[in-house]
Amino acid sequence: MTHDRDTSAERVTEYVTVMIGGQLFGLPIGRVQDVFMPERLTRVPLAGAEIAGVLNLRGRIVTAIDMRLRLGLPPRTDARARMAVGVELGAESYGLMIDSVGEVLKLDDATREPNPVNLDARWAGVSGGVHRLEGQLMVILDVDRVLDMANDAMAA
Amino acid sequence: MDDLLREFLTETNESLDVVDVELVRFEQEPNNTAILGNIFRLVHTIKGTCGFLGLPRLEALSHAAETLMGKFRDGMPVTAPAVTLILSTIDRLKDVLAGLEQNQQEPDGSDADLIAELERMAIEAAGGRAARPEPKDDKSTAGSLVYQVLERQLRPGEVSLDDLERAFQETQVERPTPKADAKAKAKSAGEDEERADPKVASQSIRVNVDTLETLMTMVSELVLTRNQLLEIVRQHEDSEFKVPLQRLSNVTAELQEGVMKTRMQPIGHAWQKLPRLLRDLSAELGKEIELEMHGADTELDRQVLDLIKDPLTHMVRNSADHGLETPDVRRAAGKPEKGTIRLSAYHQGGHIIIEIADDGRGLNSGKIRRKAVDLGLASESDVEKMTEAQIHKFIFVPGFSTAGAVTSVSGRGVGMDVVRNNIDQIGGIIDVKSVPGEGSSFTIKIPLTLAIVSALIVESAGERFAIPQLSVVELVRAQANSEHRIERIKDTAVLRLRNKLLPLIHLKTLLAIGEGDDAENGFIVVTQVGSQTFGIVVDGVFHTEEIVVKPMSTKLRHIQMFSGNTILGDGSVIMIIDPNGIAQTVGSASPVAAESEAQSETRKQKTHSLLVFRAGSPQPKAVPLSLVTRLEEIDCRKIELSNGRHLVQYRGQLMPLVRVNDEVRVRHEGTQPLLVFSDGGRSMGLVVDEIVDIVEDTLDIEVGSDTPGLLGCAVIRGQATEIIDVGHFLPLAYADWFARRDMKSEALTRSLLLVDDSAFFRNMLTPVLKAAGYEVTAVAAPAEALALIKKGERFDVVVSDIEMPGMNGFELAEAIRADERGAAIPIIALSSITSPATVERGRQAGFREFVAKFDRPGLIAALKEQTVAWDEAA
C-alpha cells in the first residue's frame, strides 16, 4: 500500500492529469510514455468489457483499456475524439482511454491523503490516494493496479 | 564471465554430447578404432583444457575416464559396465560444467567414488598385462597420441609430462593458424588437423544467438513495413515508387530467407541425446531397443528446435517404456526381440513433419477408455460411441497416464499433455495412430519458424481475422442452392463434403460478435487439427499474407481462440485464430461433431451393396443386395392369380409374389420388376414398382420404424431411404419359411446373445434367429455383452460382429474366453470381412465359426452345429 514518505524532506511528484467521467485523475508522470489519439481500434472478441481493443501505435501493438468501464462508469455516448495515455507494463504497451488530458501538476507528497474509507471499492482498488486541489479533488491512479485488476475483472 | 571460460564451456558441452553418441556407437562396434580415437581425443582435449584453466575436478574426472578408455585402445574388451561407467562420468562432468556455468567456479563435491571405480576397472584390465614402463617412444608416431596409465596418481591441477609434451607439439601445429589468442583455441586447431576432418575446412563463425534473434526481429519489422508500403502503393496505381518498391520487396524476401537460414539447425541436434538415452533405458527396462533415425539433417528454426527437444525426448522415452514390450513378450507375439523406435523428419510445404513410431504393442484403447471414465472425462456411454482415434486423444489430456506402475522412466502423470502443450505453443499439431499389437506412431506437424507464418485473412461480422495456413485444408463456398449448402441437425450446422458430414462453427457465434443467422451462405474454411476436421464459417475470404506473429497481451492471453495478433499491411491489428483452441471448443461444446466423426469412421468401415428400388411411393426403398437372389423382370401375362395370391411360374416352380405394401399394384401389362429371394429350394418374388440402382453405401438406420416390413430409415446417397425387412415378407409367402427346417429337432429354446453395433443387423437378425428357435438377447456394444455374461446370465451361444467401435469382436471373444462363466460358450463371428487372415485371427481370439454377414443359412447352420456340439460336450 501507500507509505507516507515523510522520512525524506520535501518530495514532489509530477502528475499528468486526465478527466474520466467528470472526475479528475492524476497519473505519475514517470509512468506515462505518451498521450495519443487511439485510431483504428480493433476490438478483441471474448475479451473483458474494459478491453476497448488493440491498436497499432508506431509498429507496436497496444492494448487499449476503457478507463470509464474500468472504473465502473457509464460508457461515453458523445462522439468527441477520445484520448489515450500510453503506459508500459513489463514489455507490453497499454493505452488507458480517457476523456481528455489536462495539465501536468507538481504536487507535494506531503499533501497527499489516503483514500477516504468510504470510497467505492472499485475506485479504491486503483487509487493511490487523493490530492486536494483548489476547487476539486484529484484521485491518483496507480497504473500497476489499474492493469492488474483488468485481469481479475475479466476472469470474474 | 571470462571469454576463455565461456568458450571452454560451449566447446566442452558440445564435445561431451558427441562423446555420448560416439560411446553408444562404440559399444556396438567395439572394433571401430576410428570411433575410439575420436572419443579419446575429445576427452583428452577436455582434460588438457581443464588443466590449463585450473579446474581440478573436471580434470581428475576426465583423466580417470581417459585412462580407462586408453585401456580399450590397448585391447581391453569393451564391456557394458565399463561404458556405463564412462557415461556416468560424462554425466558428472556435465553436472560440474553446469555448476561452473552458473557460479563461474567448480562446484564443491567429491568425485572419489567415480574415480576409484574407473581406476579399479582400469587396473583390472591392466591386471592381465604387465604395466608398461614409460612409453615415451609411442610419441614417435605423429598425430596419434597414446597415453599410459602411470600418471593416474597425478594430483588434480598438476600437469603430466605428456600433457606438456603435447602442448608443445600443438603449439607447433598452431603456427599456421592465425588465431593464437587462447590455448584452448590452439588446441582445437591442433586436433582439427589431427582429425583431418573435411568439416574443418568449412568457414564458420560462432554468433551469439541473441544477435540472430535481434536480426530476426528487425527483419520481421522490415517485412511489416514492406507490407505497409505495398498497401499504400496499391492504392496509388501510377506511383513512381512502384518499381523501387518491388525491388525492396524482393530484397526483403531474400533477406528474410537468409536470416531465417542462419537460425536453421538440423533436427539431428535435438536427437543427439537419444541414442544415449535409449541405451540407458534398454538397460534399465531390460528391453532391446534399436533406434532408427531418418532425415536428421532436416533443418528447422532453432527456436522451434529448442521447444520440441524435450517433447521429443519424452515421447521416445514413452515409446521405449510403454510402447515396446519386453523381449519375451515380443517373442511370444512373433516379433523380433529387438524393438525398433523410428524417428523421421521431413519437410512438407512450410512445415516440418516429425514422426516417432515404435513397433510395440500399440495403445491400449480399453485401458484409456476406462481411465477416461474414471477421471470423469467422458461418460461410459460417450466412450462407447467414440472411435479409436478419439479414444487415443485422451492421452493428451492433463494428468492422464495409463501406466499401471510408476516406473522411473515414465508414468508420473506428466506426460503427453505436456508434450501437447509444448507443441500447441509453437502452433504445431500432434496426432497419434495406433494399431494394437503393431505399434503406435506419433506425428508432429510444426511450422518451420515461429516468427513469420503464412495466414489466410478472413472476414466475419465486418472484422478481419487471420487463420494460420498450417491447419487450413481447403476452402468451400456454401450457397443456398448449390451442391455445398449448410444444413442443420437441430441447431448444429453441418456441411456435406464428399460424403462426409463436416461439423461447422460460425466464427461470429464462436467469438460472440454477431449472429450466424444467414443460414445457408458463407465461406467455409475446412480446418484440420490432428484427426479432427471441422469447418469455420466466415463471411468472406481475402488472401493469404505472410504475417509476423506478435504475442497476445497478457491481459488477453486467456482467450483460447487466439494464438496471437499481427499488424497487417494496412496498419491495422488483427487477431490470429488458434485452430487448436477452436478444436477444443468444437470437441467439448458440440458432441455432434464428435459423433459425426465417429459415424463417418464407422461408415468407412462398413459399406454395403444396397439395392435401391421404389414401391408404392416416390420415396426410395432399399434392401441389402446380398439378401437378394436375383432381380427379374417378368412378363405380366405370366402372373396368375390363385386363391387371392399372385403366383408366377418361375424356373419350373410356382413362386408366390408378395407386394411390399398395399400401394404397389401388380401390373397387368408390360413387364413386372421383381426381387427374388430364394432359400432352401423355395423362392419368393417381392413386387416392386421400379428397380433404381445398386449403390455402395453405409447403412445407418437413423430412424426406426414400427411399420411391419420396414426396419427404418437411412440416408443412402444423400436421400432418406426406407430399409425393408425381408424377414417380414418371407413368411408372407410361406408361413413356415423359417420354421420348416430349423425348428424340427429343437425341443428346448436356446438362448443366444447377439452383439452388433448396427441397429440394422440387430433388427434383421433377431426375427430370423427367433424364427430359428433361439431366444435372442441383442446388445449394441461388446461391453454390454460382457457385462451380461459377467453378471452370470446364461447363454448357449454368442453371435458377434467383428468391426465395432471401441472393443472389437476379437477383443470381446478374448474377454469372454477369459471369463470363467464364458469360457465354454461357443462364439460365432459375423463379419463382412472373411479373409483367411481375419478368420485366423478370429480363431486365435476364440471364435468357433466365421460366418459372412448376410449369409443367413450359413449362420443358422453354424449355430446348429455349435449348439449341438456343445450339448454333446455338456
Question: What would you note in describing this structure?
Answer:
The complex is a heterodimer of chains A (156) and B (874). Chain A has 156 residues and is mostly beta strands. In chain A, 15% of the residues lie in helices and 45% in strands. Chain A has helices at residues 67-70, 121-126, 143-155; strands at residues 12-20, 23-28, 32-36, 51-57, 60-66, 83-89, 92-98, 100-108, 112-113, 127-132, 137-141. In chain A, β1 (12-20) and β2 (23-28) form a beta hairpin. With 874 residues, chain B is an alpha+beta fold. Chain B has a six-stranded mixed sheet. Chain B has a six-stranded mixed sheet with strand order 27-19-20-30-29-28.
In short, what is this structure?
The complex is a heterodimer of chains A (156) and B (874). By secondary structure, chain A is mainly beta. Chain A has helices at residues 67-70, 121-126, 143-155, and strands at residues 12-20, 23-28, 32-36, 51-57, 60-66, 83-89, 92-98, 100-108, 112-113, 127-132, 137-141.
Strand order of the largest sheet of chain B: 10-14-15-13-12-11
What best-fitting shape of chain A do the alpha-carbon axes yield? globular
Q: Kindly state the mean pLDDT of chain B as a whole number?
A: 75
Give a count of the beta strands of chain B, DSSP E runs of length 2 or more: 35
Write down how many β-strands of chain A occur, each being a DSSP E stretch of 2 or more residues: 11
Percent range of helical residues of chain A = 10-25%
**Which regions of chain B are unreliable across 5 or more consecutive residues at pLDDT < 50?**
128-154, 171-201, 404-414, 589-605, 740-747
What class would the helix/strand composition of chain B place it in? alpha+beta
Low-confidence stretches of chain A: 4-8, 150-156
Order the strands across the largest sheet of chain A as they lie in space. Answer: 8-1-2-11-10-9
Oligomer: heterodimer
- Estimate the strand proportion of chain A: 35-45%
The N- to C-terminal Cα distance of chain A equals: 23 Å
Largest interface: chains, residues each? A-B, 24 and 23 residues
> Which sequence of SSEs, written as H and E, runs from N to C of chain A?
EEEEEHEEEEHEEH
For the report, how would you describe the main beta sheet of chain B? Answer: 6 strands, mixed
From the N-terminal CA to the C-terminal CA of chain B, the straight-line distance is 86 Å
Number of helices of chain B: 27
Largest sheet of chain A: 6 strands, mixed
